[in-house]
Amino acid sequence: MVNEVLELVSTEWLEKNLGSKNLRVLDASWYLPNENRNPKEEFSSRHIAGSNYFDINSFSDPDDPLPHMVPSEYRFCSELSKLGVSAGNHVVFYDGLGLFSAARAWWLLKLFGFTNVSILDGGLPKWVSENRPLKSDVIGSSGELITSRFNNQLVCDWKQVKLCIGDKRGQIIDARPFDRFSGHVKEPRPGLRSGHIPGSINICYKELLNDDQTLKNKELLSDIFAAKGVDLTLPIITSCGSGITAAILFLALEVVGAKNLALYDGSWSEWGSRDDLDVENNI
Fold first, then answer.
1. Where exactly are the structural domains of the chain?
2. CA quadruple 168, 174, 177, 178: dihedral, nearest 10
3. pLDDT higher than threshold 70 for residue 143
């Protein structure tokens, strides 16, 4: 086990370290409804040996009508301990698309004060393509009671986003595809307006990934942000549809050295549903 915990670990590194007592591997797969995939069933069918399933819906606030909103500290700690995670473990997330919902799980742990957390670069597709070992059996486990250290600097609400719009130093980056950002297509969730938060910058999360769904290297990521006029020294808020792909932006920004980062948890599911919040579009 390496001493320095990186944002990303390779498939080679993970296979080499699977036997470590300190390692916890979690499958955080989640799919959009139109993909017609069941992540729990897929996990039961095959997964990386020793891993447990991290259900993003379970790690959300069940009382909030918006999707995937951050849960209470009690719920988060309770659900995490059910997966056999204890304080001091090195947690590695992966997902079934390569790099998608694993970033949200990674961000959630950072939000609740866990620094010993990484993402498997390329996820399960890369692992499978390299013929690395898979299992179908699920081993029940539980960890000790966890205490968190919630870092409210990493998350923001619509009020903070509104303040950012009026702040010349503030930057909002939207991870949705351009046709949704521009308002040229309807939102997949009913009842949402089309368009984007005024003044926001569009960098679709797919622009940050290689063809094999690994994250692009630091130099390429820096070039992408520079080309879009992003100043890494100023505050940045990431957003998307429901807070999933905004975490991929958050990850990429952290890789290139941005320090003042927050994720808009409500994202377009909230902003686009409220008539009292202004919307821009390119139509």
1. 8-150, 153-271
2. -10
3. no
Domains 8-150 and 153-271 share a fold: yes
Both tokens assigned to 197: 């938060």
Is 8-150 a domain of CATH 3.40.250.10? yes
pLDDT in tens, 172-214: 999 999 999 999 999 988 899 999 999 999 999 999 999 999 9
- Mean pLDDT within 110-131: 97
Answering whether pTM is above 0.85, one says: yes
- The whole-angstrom distance between residue 128's C-alpha and the CA centroid of its chain comes to 22
Whether the CB-CB separation of 237 and 171 falls below 8 Å is answered with yes
CATH fold for the domain made of 153-271: Oxidized Rhodanese; domain 1 (3.40.250)
Active site residues: 240
DSSP string, 21-64: TTEEEEE-----GGG---HHHHHHH-EETT-EE--TTTTS-TT-
The token pair at 269 is 């599911």
d(CA 185, CA 281): 11
Q: Is 3 exposed, middle or buried (0-12, 13-18, 19+ CB in 10 A)?
A: exposed
Closest by CA to 263, choosing from 177, 194, 183, 173, is: 173
The alpha carbons of the chain give a radius of gyration, in whole angstroms, of 18
